[in-house]
Amino acid sequence: MPVFIHENLNLHYDIVGDHGPWAALSPGGRRGMQAVRGLASALARSGVRVLIFDRRNCGASDVAFDESRAEDQAWADDLHALLNHVGAAKAWIGGGSSGCRMSLLYALKYPQQVSGLLLWKITGGAFAARRLAAQYFTDYIRLAESGGMAAVCASEHFSAGISTNPGNRERLMQFTPETFIAVMREWHRRFAEGASSPILGVSENQLRSIQIPAFVIPGNDNTHPLVAGQRLHALLPESELAILFPVQVDADVAPQEDWQRKEPEIANLFAGFIHRRIGLSQ
């Protein structure tokens, strides 16, 4: 698997497909690129070349904790450098859940290098804000407070990352618990600031300012409520909407298997949107 070094970090990536317009896909949470490989492969069969990568603190890539910017903004900056590295000066940027938030931040910071947006499982609402703040930050603060960095290394997420990238244990242990906690608290503060926005972390005015094509597929659970996707579609001036799950389940997160079964349909919707929009712009 290729590795790109950016800001002294090893970022693992892959390119699925060898022709067609460029796209980049990112999964939700802190999941690695394998979570979107199936969707990327389906898109590639429709004539779209797709970049996938393990974001910092995800999968086999290096861990890094920097309080100067939010984690999802760092992901967007990493993706920008990586796309330039592979020669994709302009691409369709897409993601689900946290990958959706990162894609929106990317479009806001690098609008001239975005052909359009491919967004699914949109996060919004008070429940999502509380749940994700704990999952991303508070749980790790408590681990560091009670067991130091060894406890953080032993957590389910970071122990999995260490198994694929053993050097991450040393990187984590180089932090004092106090420094790590300070970064987590700052990231939590930034996250909480955007909790009341229609889409977590992105204001209504920011969304209205995004003047590029977007395709929106709402989620169907309490973290990714249907209404959040509908609201995003209403706020993005150049967006199209497809509802694949009209009934919302009363669960923190809908079964991932349900979405995996929809990957061929999602890929067809995204590929059709891309090719149609390219035709309109010619």
Would you give an account of this structure?
This protein is of the alpha/beta class. Helix 1 (37-44) crosses helix 11 (263-281) and helix 4 (126-153) runs antiparallel to helix 7. The longest helix has 28 residues, at 126-153. The protein folds into two domains: 3-124 and 199-281, Rossmann fold (3-Layer(aba) Sandwich); 130-191, no CATH class. The model has no long low-confidence stretch (mean pLDDT 95). Strands 1-2-4-3-5-6-7-8 form an eight-stranded mixed sheet, sandwiched between helices. It is 48% helix and 15% strand.
Could you give the count of β-strands? 8
Within CATH, the superfamily of the largest domain carries the name: Alpha/Beta hydrolase fold, catalytic domain
Most strands sheet: 8 strands, mixed
**CATH topology heading of the largest domain:** Rossmann fold
Percent of residues in helices: 40-55%
User: Tell me, what's the shape?
Assistant: globular
What fraction strand? Answer: 5-15%
What structural class do the secondary elements suggest? Answer: alpha/beta
Distance N terminus to C terminus? 35 Å
What spatial order of strands do you see in the largest sheet?
A: 1-2-4-3-5-6-7-8
Low-confidence stretches: none
Query: What top-tier CATH class of the largest domain fits best?
Result: Alpha Beta
Classify the oligomer: single chain
Query: What is the element string, with H for helices and E for strands?
Result: EEEHEHEHEHHHHHEHEHH
**Rg (CA only):** 18 Å
Name the average pLDDT. 95
CATH architectural name of the largest domain: 3-Layer(aba) Sandwich
* Total domain count: 2
Q: What's the total helix number?
A: 11
